[in-house]
């Protein structure tokens, strides 16, 4: 199984499939026996909850890396019926299915980080992260992402990447033309150019990527540069990668020019937008419907960015394309 992995969980036999998938990922990342056991228990409880309570349940498993330490992120998503009282559901002993009612509590105790969002009748999104060693230190900008291939494809033709440079956090989303390995090669090449040339800034990176990607089938690419101290984000894009800033005063779509990086791109232009602390930045490929809206999800924007990305993926994916959703938040208490 390739990772990130998408494991449908709609009946009991798929719990075992999820457990085998997390075991393979934990072993590959070098988790010791104790931490492999914790990961298996978290996935088992999450998958069992999907079988008992959910509709259209799915698990997303992806590897993490922070300062050289590997980790695992688990997202459990379903479309209903949702929890009317999340706090009560997290208490040990509470159950609506006749079980001991300890599953959610166990997930929160075993994970380095866990978060839960539920809304009746839209469904529930559960996040858990586990690390092979110590959890990473807090960051001034927190991010979360979902990036999965089109159904039937082994690899995702999209890519995303994050880099840090002198107090700036730079983010990239790339969508290689088409699907499969050739699309993945184009988007991976864009991500490599990005990681190796962060000091060039968004427009400069795009120009260099345009030359480098001529050997590939090309990609839509967008780059955002978050300046935490100035509370602004600088954005440059070519092709149909969407970028939106969500702040208290409303949302603002960011400008991306027409074209394909590596094939035809006439303008590489940067645009600057206010990005006050506490705001969300959402970037996504066209595998996500452009008319998504967080308004029907009260309180979601304050949760971990991975939960935001997961809910957007669950409810707004087109279903006929690779899809990547990248969400970032500048913490209000950032130094």
Structure keywords:
335 residues, alpha+beta, Heat Shock Protein 90, Phosphatase 2c, domain 1, 2 domains, five-stranded antiparallel sheet, 7 helices, 32% strand
Description:
The chain has 335 residues and is α+β, with helices and mostly antiparallel strands. The protein folds into 2 domains: 5-131, Histidine kinase-like ATPase, C-terminal domain (Heat Shock Protein 90), CATH 3.30.565; 141-330, 4-Layer Sandwich (Phosphatase 2c, domain 1), CATH 3.60.40. The chain is built from 7 helices and 15 strands. It has a 5-stranded antiparallel beta sheet with strand order 1-2-3-5-4, with helices on both faces. Strands 6-15-14-11-12 form a 5-stranded antiparallel beta sheet, covered by helices on one side. Strands 7-8-9-10-13 form a 5-stranded antiparallel beta sheet, with helices on one face. A hairpin with a 2-residue loop joins strand 7 (158-165) and strand 8. Helix 1 (13-28) runs antiparallel to helix 2, helix 2 runs antiparallel to helix 4 and helix 5 (180-196) crosses helix 6. The longest helix has 21 residues, at 33-53.
Summarize the structure.
This protein is of the alpha+beta class and 335 residues long. It contains seven helices and 15 strands. The longest helix is centred in the N-terminal third of the chain and has 21 residues, at 33-53.
How is this fold's topology laid out?
Elements: E1 5-8, H1 13-28, H2 33-53, E2 58-66, E3 69-77, H3 86-89, H4 103-110, E4 113-119, E5 123-131, E6 141-148, E7 158-165, E8 168-176, H5 180-196, H6 201-212, E9 219-227, E10 232-238, E11 242-247, E12 250-253, E13 271-274, E14 280-284, H7 305-316, E15 323-330
Antiparallel strand pairs: 1-2, 2-3, 3-5, 4-5, 6-15, 7-8, 8-9, 9-10, 10-13, 11-12, 11-14, 14-15
Helix pairs in contact: 1-2, 2-4, 5-6
């Amino acid at each position: 199984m390739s990772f990130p992995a998408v494991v449908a969980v709609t009946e009991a036999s798929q719990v075992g499939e999820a457990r085998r998938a997390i075991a393979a990922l934990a072993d590959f990342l070098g988790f010791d026996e104790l931490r492999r056991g914790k990961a298996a228990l978290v996935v088992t409880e999450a998958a069992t909850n999907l079988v008992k309570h959910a509709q259209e349940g799915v698990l997303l498993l992806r590897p993490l890396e922070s300062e050289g330490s590997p980790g695992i992120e688990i997202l459990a998503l379903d479309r209903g019926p949702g929890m009317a009282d999340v706090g009560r559901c997290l208490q040990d002993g509470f159950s609506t299915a006749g079980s001991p009612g300890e599953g959610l509590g166990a997930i929160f105790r075993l994970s380095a980080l866990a978060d839960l969002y539920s809304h009746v009748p839209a469904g529930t999104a559960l996040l858990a992260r586990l690390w092979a060693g110590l959890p990473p230190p807090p960051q001034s900008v927190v991010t979360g992402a979902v990036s999965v291939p089109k159904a039937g494809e082994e690899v995702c033709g999209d890519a995303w990447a994050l880099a840090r440079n002198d107090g700036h956090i730079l983010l990239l989303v790339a969508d290689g033309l088409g699907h499969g390995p050739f699309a993945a090669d184009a988007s991976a090449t864009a991500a490599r150019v990005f990681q190796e040339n962060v000091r060039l800034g968004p427009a400069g990176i795009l120009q260099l990527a345009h030359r480098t990607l001529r050997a590939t089938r090309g990609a839509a690419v967008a780059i955002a540069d978050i300046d935490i101290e100035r509370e602004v984000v600088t954005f440059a894009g070519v092709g149909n990668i969407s970028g939106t800033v969500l702040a208290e005063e409303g949302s603002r779509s960011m400008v991306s020019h027409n074209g394909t990086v590596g094939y035809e791109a006439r303008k590489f232009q940067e645009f600057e937008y206010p990005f006050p602390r506490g705001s969300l930045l959402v970037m996504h490929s066209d595998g996500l419907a452009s008319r998504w809206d967080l308004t029907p999800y009260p309180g979601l924007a304050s949760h971990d960015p991975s939960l935001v990305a997961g809910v957007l993926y669950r409810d707004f994916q087109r279903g006929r394309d690779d899809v990547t959703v990248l969400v970032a938040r500048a913490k209000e208490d950032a130094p």
